[in-house]
Write a structure and sequence with these properties.
Radius of gyration: 18 Å
Modified residues (4-aspartylphosphate): 53
InterPro entries: CheY-like_superfamily, OmpR/PhoB-type_DNA-bd, Sig_transdc_resp-reg_C-effctor, Sig_transdc_resp-reg_receiver, WalR-like, WH-like_DNA-bd_sf
Largest sheet: 5 strands, parallel
Strand order of the largest sheet: 2-1-3-4-5
Pfam families: Response_reg (PF00072), Trans_reg_C (PF00486)
DNA-binding region: 123-226
Order of helices and strands: EHEHEHEHEHEEEHEHHEE
Strand content: 15-25%
GO molecular function, one term: transcription cis-regulatory region binding
Number of domains: 2
């Protein structure tokens, strides 16, 4: 069955290219132009991913995000908006969004973000749809991480690093991006802070049997990958990261 994407956008000249592009990718796509219609749609046939504009005619997209999460929606929510400020991005994530894309954006980037979100929401479940007892599951809205049904206790920074890596699963995330997004783009301390955090994350995930691995790519950054994913070398220790 095709994965379902709900596009919530009131501007037709933006919505139509999105819908056509996603349909060409093989997704089942629905489009609504208001917040209430989005909530009504999600209460009927839940989507795997919601692409949500903030500037809707009847209510703010953040309110749609909040209500959807309160109603039990567990799929991925990606906010797209002309509000490019750091505060808006943080607020959107606090309301339960999984990703944030500022307008104007390229369709290729949006496609890549949707694929990453679908991989993340699918991780933590076996092919039969049952929870994988060793799978990693990130609950962004609750800021909690699970190995199967067991919660992995993480600090705020550990969660934020893992959340970024999980959102880009199987892709390398640059050290600079992690430092800028988790700490601050104006951080002047040692980047060893990131290495220490990665080391603690590895220990905590391994201690509960998570099969996903955080792999260091020397001189570039880090990648979260499944235990069965191909790799040319074993993951180095945090001291080598």
């Amino acid at each position: 069955m095709a994965q379902r994407v709900l596009v919530v956008e009131d501007e037709e000249d933006i919505a139509f290219p999105l819908v056509r592009t996603l349909e060409r990718e093989g997704y089942e796509v629905s489009w609504v132009d208001s917040g209430q219609r989005a909530l009504d749609d999600l209460s009927g046939i839940p989507a795997d991913v919601v692409i949500l504009d903030l500037g809707l005619p009847d209510m703010d997209g953040l309110e749609v995000c909040r209500r959807a999460r309160e109603a039990g929606y567990e799929g991925a929510i990606m906010i797209v908006t002309a509000r490019a400020g750091e505060l808006d991005r943080v607020v959107g994530l606090d309301y339960g969004a999984d990703d944030y894309l500022a307008k104007p954006f390229g369709l290729a980037e949006l496609q890549a973000r949707v694929r990453a979100l679908l991989r993340r929401t699918a991780s933590g479940f076996s092919a039969s749809g049952d929870p994988d007892p060793h799978g990693l599951r990130v609950d962004v809205a609750a800021r909690r991480v699970y190995c199967g049904e067991q919660e992995v206790p993480l600090t705020g920074k550990e969660f934020e690093v893992l959340n970024i890596l999980a959102s880009q699963r199987d892709k390398v995330v640059a050290r600079g991006r992690l430092m800028a997004d988790v700490w601050d783009e104006n951080w002047y301390g040692s980047t060893k802070t990131l290495d220490v955090t990665i080391g603690r994350l590895r220990q905590k995930l391994e201690s509960v049997g998570v099969t996903d691995k955080i792999v260091a790519v020397r001189g570039v950054g880090f990648r979260l990958e499944g235990a069965a994913a191909p790799s040319t070398s074993s993951a180095p220790s945090s001291a080598d990261a």
